Every structure is written in C-alpha cells, then in structure tokens.
Amino acid sequence: MALFLLRYAEMGLKSEKVRNRFQRSLVENIENHFVKLNTECLVSWDRGRIFVMTDNTDSARTVFSHTFGIVSYSEAVEAEVELEPLLRSVVSYASGRLTRGKSFAIRARRSGQQKYTSMELARKAGEAILDGFAGLGLTVDLEEPDIEIFVEAREKGAYIYSEIETGPGGLPLGTQGTVLCHVVRREDILAAWLMMRRGCTVVIATGNRESASPLVDWDPEIKFVEAVPGTDMHALARQNGCKGISFATEYSGMPSTAEPKDGLALFYPLTGLIQDERKRLLDKVL
User: Fold this and answer.
1) CATH architecture assigned to 2-77
2) Distance between CA atoms of 218 and 64, rounded to whole angstroms?
3) What percent of the chain has pLDDT over 90?
4) Which pLDDT score, from 0 to 100, does residue 18 have?
5) Which residue positions in the chain have pLDDT lower than 50?
6) Where would I find the H helices in the chain?
7) If 122 and its partner were Cys, which of 23, 106, 128, 191 is the partner (CB 3.0–4.6 Å)?
8) How far apart are the first and last CA of the chain?
9) What's the pTM value of the predicted model, to 2 decimals?
C-alpha cells in the first residue's frame, strides 16, 4: 500500500483541545471522501501530520486535493528513525531517481528526541548518496537542484519523499457553523466554496441543482434545498439550522436580503477579490 503524509497549517495554531477537534473532523472528512470513491484507506496521525495508507494512489490524490484543511501532501516511504538505517533508506530511495550528472539537495527535518540534528541528518544523507553513487558525477546544489529529497525524522519513524503536492488549505469542513448559500451563477459557486474553505457546512439553495453539482466533489454529503425567485432566504436558512446566508453579490431577485435579521449573519465572500483572482479560484473549483 502507498503511504501519504498530509500537512495542515492554520488549525495547527489552535489550542490543543480545538486542534484535536479539528483534526478529528479532518480525518472524518478524508474517510468520507474515500468512501464516496469506494476506496479503502487506513488513517493515523501524529502532531502536525496525518498519515494515510491506500492501494489507490489516483483516488488518494483526488481526495487530498479536494479536502479542506490539507495544505499539502506527499507520497512517502517510511524508514527507521535511527541514523544508520535511515541513511541506508535514503540511499535506496535515491536509487533510480538520481541519474548521471544530476544535482540534488537533501531537505531534512527532525521533530523528536533523536541524537542527531536536522543539519547533521542532511549532511550525512548527502554524503551517503555521493558515496553510494560515486560513478554518476552527482553534485549537491542547495539553491536550484534537479531533484530534492525530503527526510522527516519524527518520534516514531522517519519519512522520505521527493514531491510536495498542494491541497486546498483552509479549515476542515464542519468545524464552523452552517451557512445557507444561494447559487444561481458561476460566481455563486465560488462564494459557496470559499465559505466551505473557512470550515462552514453549507446548504445550497438553488433552483437548478445541476448548476451547483461541482461542489459535491468538495463535500460528498452536501445538502441541496429548493430556492426560486421570491423565496424567503431568511426563512429557508432558519428551517435548515443555518447561522448565516452567503451570496456572491446582493441579488435583486431575492427580497429582504440587504440586512441581517433573526440573528442571521450575511456573508459576501467575494468582496475584495479582483476578477483575475476570482477566475483563478473558480477554475480550481470547477
């Protein structure tokens, strides 16, 4: 089975109690995505990292690129944390990835009680590769290497990888309140996505469910409710347990949306985004 190492950022700044709650939500969201794709996975975690094992790497990448809270992820190889076995694993990992005349860099990170520092690990790993492939004319280039090899030595094990892929970031879905999102146009989809990225569970109010279907890829359990011109959005929000309503812009077809009432907040998440940024994000969502 392939092993993936997942990173989060913003939720790592929370208190331990809140961070643990957010992490549980993130793990649950990951598992729900895998279930939707009918793919098995095994999930574990350590402070600052989540580990996923699966035999379907394509499905895994689809899940990780559509799960809010994941900043980045890497397919990795697990190794022993003791220095000598770890160095042998690094050399083995480099075999087949480094070819004649290439330059490389070791990016090492240590978080635990190991008897070596991050700098020492990087230096010794680089030396081990140069010694192990002395006939290939390899060089070390810390500025613009042809290949980067990352080594993370943690408390219970070490992980080696060479690629870092980008996730959507944000907060795990469901860690904030529930918001009603009115979807009529493409920009409404982006507004809903931005609320989801802030951790909100969204209820999609639309007269055309198909138009909002791209959001299902981001939340397999997303809820849709019927909304047509003249629908009382405040009443619809209350009926669905929402704490607020989100719009791309103020929409004249919906009455009584200009001011908050009944304790419901109004959100316009596209405010301040220039058109180029809106297009870039919408391309990502769709």
Assistant:
1) 2-Layer Sandwich (3.30)
2) 10
3) 69
4) 84
5) 251-258
6) 16-36, 57-64, 83-94, 118-132, 186-197, 233-239, 275-285
7) 106
8) 30
9) 0.88
